[in-house]
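Dear H.,

Thanks for agreeing to be a second pair of eyes. The structure we're designing against is below in token form, covering all 701 positions.
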């Protein structure tokens, strides 16, 4: 077995003794074994000993490889120059392979591709499978640099197959990791994370290849998980220092993390050409030049720069081009920046509504897949919470597993309700309302929305009617809130209010009638027992597994359990059941979500998880509900449950509202390709103050 195939065994069994030739062979094997384990200092010492012993060119070749691995290109080329005149046949082809690998780092990857293509033919002729794999990997890297991603994927896949066949699973795993890097460049973040995960399971040792951690950190950063990216970078930095490897991307990535956390100083200190830093520094022309070539995210940043340097019309066109690019490649970042910039430029009610919906969609989370590994990660998290153990690392595991898998699609055709609509959106430090009603569209500024919410809640607690002109004076209205307005007790404002997180959550009823009743611990169960006795249905086991089984395909679900809202990630919000939390991640895994959900004992933050999973309507409160009033209130809710918005209105004095589509028969129509605002709207009074600062009204046929 070769030193590279089983380096640990080579180190354990090899002794430097015997004849000069035997000692040279032993030193060479030990050097190669330590290279494989990432012990570059030790590997270099053995190679230097062999060179002093015999002066053989193979030791120069090994030292050239070691120095290239360390990022010391000049020393590597010196050893290569000393070795090449003494090499013939297979060894000369290996030297040419190393020169090709040097060219991978050049500004012109086509030179590396040409050199390595020639070398690959030679190595195939000699049957040198290990070095053939090296050359294929090098050409794959060069093809990544040339944005020839399909060809790069083919090279890495061929090298992986070859290394598996010759019994080198660790290096084969590195090829699989490289295929994840190709997916990352193509903008397919879930596939990239999945391949990184599979490579780690297949035997990729990040202690000997810390560059793999750098790649993983970049993927986490692209997913918006800046804290997780920094945690991965910390051990990578230590390992690279220990190995004495120079990886320029590490400093770049660390500064990018700081930039995402709102600290541009480390980024602006770098004098590199990274497009994200250039964008932060305001070098818009230079960044915009990248919009036609390079990885997906680089091109998307180019379109963002183009938007920032253009007039309003050109900026909106650039934002549309960037979003179209991300849609084509399933990319996410910098979608939110593109939609946010376009939203800031929008003027007409139609534009504001369109870009506000695009912006909301860019901030929504994909549904994680219903797979065993995610279920196991959530079980470990529940167990840790039950025993009071640290949970931060386990939460990271849940996010990692969910990101690494291909998400389930929840994208239905956007439907616009055939009802008056008020969509609120924060932009430019102000709350804007777009109202669509009776064929007219209106744009208004809402003054001090936080005060409006506070006043409404105080009025409810005092038993007074809530008086505000936020909504038009109609019997029924659809509301899409933003910012602090998510906490408004909407049902207390008008007869029937449907509160949507975004318009894509407007759904037609499916007509299911099956009822499910779930009680959490530390709550009186008389409420659920009495309701079940009156309305029938199944009282589900108050455990996570029991609840999930009962929720699958249910019609109306009543949950009397306390809930806790996670401020940063709604999928970590949870309902407290007998054996632990039922997380938003659990709810998102439901394949056939319940149609209507009533949350009688927890505040409305959990409604979002059900709506994102596909539930049509959720009745929940923005206020803590006194136990003494719950039973009577829930009796009234279930009397009217066929019309959820009407049911919520009946208990609006307790802070309840209907989230989602609360109609008995949803009056929906399919939308056009973009959110349509052709149906426009009247000029209703929608401002929260009698002296709005801006009003725009348009009639749109």
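And this is the sequence the design step returned. I haven't edited it by hand at all.
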């Amino acid at each position: 077995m070769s030193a590279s195939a089983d380096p640990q065994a080579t180190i354990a069994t090899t002794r430097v003794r015997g004849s000069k030739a035997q000692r040279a062979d032993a030193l060479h094997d030990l050097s190669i074994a330590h290279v494989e384990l990432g012990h570059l200092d030790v590997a270099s010492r053995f190679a230097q000993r062999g060179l002093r012993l015999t002066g053989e060119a193979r030791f120069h070749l090994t030292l050239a490889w070691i120095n290239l691995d360390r990022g010391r290109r000049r020393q590597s080329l010196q050893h290569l120059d000393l070795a090449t005149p003494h090499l013939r046949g297979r060894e000369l082809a290996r030297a040419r392979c190393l020169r090709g690998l040097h060219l991978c780092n050049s500004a012109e990857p086509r030179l590396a591709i040409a050199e390595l293509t020639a070398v690959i033919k030679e190595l195939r002729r000699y049957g040198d499978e290990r070095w053939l794999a090296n050359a294929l990997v090098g050409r794959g890297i060069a093809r990544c640099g040339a944005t020839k991603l399909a060809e790069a994927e083919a090279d890495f896949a061929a090298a992986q197959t070859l290394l598996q066949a010759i019994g080198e699973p660790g290096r084969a795993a590195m090829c699989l990791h490289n295929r994840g890097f190709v997916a990352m460049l193509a903008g397919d973040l879930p596939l990239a994370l999945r391949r990184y995960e599979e490579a780690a399971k297949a035997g990729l040792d990040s202690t000997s290849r810390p560059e793999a951690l750098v790649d993983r950190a970049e993927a986490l950063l692209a997913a918006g998980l800046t804290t997780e990216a920094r945690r991965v970078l910390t051990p990578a930095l230590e390992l690279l220092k220990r190995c004495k490897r120079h990886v320029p991307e590490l400093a770049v990535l660390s500064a990018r993390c700081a930039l995402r956390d709102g600290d541009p100083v480390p980024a602006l200190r770098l004098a590199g050409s990274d497009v994200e830093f250039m964008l932060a520094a305001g070098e818009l022309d230079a960044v915009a030049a990248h919009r036609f070539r390079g990885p997906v995210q680089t091109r998307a940043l180019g379109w963002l720069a183009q938007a920032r340097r253009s007039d309003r019309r050109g900026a909106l066109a650039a934002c549309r081009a960037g979003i179209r690019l991300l849609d084509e490649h399933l990319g996410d970042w910098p979608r939110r920046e593109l939609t946010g910039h376009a939203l800031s430029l929008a003027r007409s009610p139609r534009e504001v509504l369109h870009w506000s919906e695009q912006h909301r969609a860019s901030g929504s989370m994909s549904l994680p897949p219903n797979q065993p590994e995610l279920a196991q990660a959530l079980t470990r998290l529940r167990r840790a919470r039950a025993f009071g153990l640290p949970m931060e690392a386990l939460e990271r595991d849940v996010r990692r597993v969910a990101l690494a898998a291909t998400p389930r699609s929840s994208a239905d055709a956007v439907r616009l309700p055939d009802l008056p609509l008020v969509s609120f959106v924060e932009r430019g430090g102000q709350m804007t309302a777009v109202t669509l009603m009776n064929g007219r569209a209106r744009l208004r500024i809402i003054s001090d929305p936080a005060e409006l919410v506070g006043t409404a809640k105080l009025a409810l607690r005092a038993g007074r009617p809530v008086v505000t002109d936020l909504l038009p004076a109609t019997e029924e209205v659809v509301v899409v809130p933003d910012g602090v307005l998510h906490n408004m007790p909407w049902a207390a404002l008008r007869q029937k209010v449907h509160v949507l997180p975004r318009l894509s959550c407007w759904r037609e009823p499916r007509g299911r009638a099956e009822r499910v009743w779930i009680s959490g611990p530390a709550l009186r169960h008389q409420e659920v027992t009495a309701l079940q006795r009156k309305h029938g249905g199944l009282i589900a086991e108050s455990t996570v597994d029991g609840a999930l089984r009962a929720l699958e395909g249910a019609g109306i679900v009543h949950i009397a359990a306390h809930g806790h809202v996670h401020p940063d990630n709604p999928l970590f919000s949870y309902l407290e059941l007998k054996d632990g939390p039922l997380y938003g991640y659990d709810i998102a895994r439901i394949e056939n979500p319940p149609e209507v959900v009533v949350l009688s004992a927890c505040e409305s933050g959990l409604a979002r998880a059900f709506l994102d999973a596909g539930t049509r309507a959720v009745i929940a409160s923005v206020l803590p509900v006194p136990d003494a009033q719950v039973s009577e209130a829930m009796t009234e809710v279930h009397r009217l449950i066929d019309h959820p918005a009407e049911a919520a209105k009946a208990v609006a004095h307790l802070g309840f509202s209907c989230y989602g589509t609360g109609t008995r028969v949803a009056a929906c129509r399919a939308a056009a390709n973009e959110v349509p605002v052709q149906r426009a709207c009247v000029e209703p009074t929608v401002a929260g103050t009698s002296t709005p600062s801006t009003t725009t009204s348009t009639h749109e046929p």
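Two observations from my side: The CA atoms of residues 59 and 420 lie 79 Å apart. The mean pLDDT is 82.

Warmly,
E.
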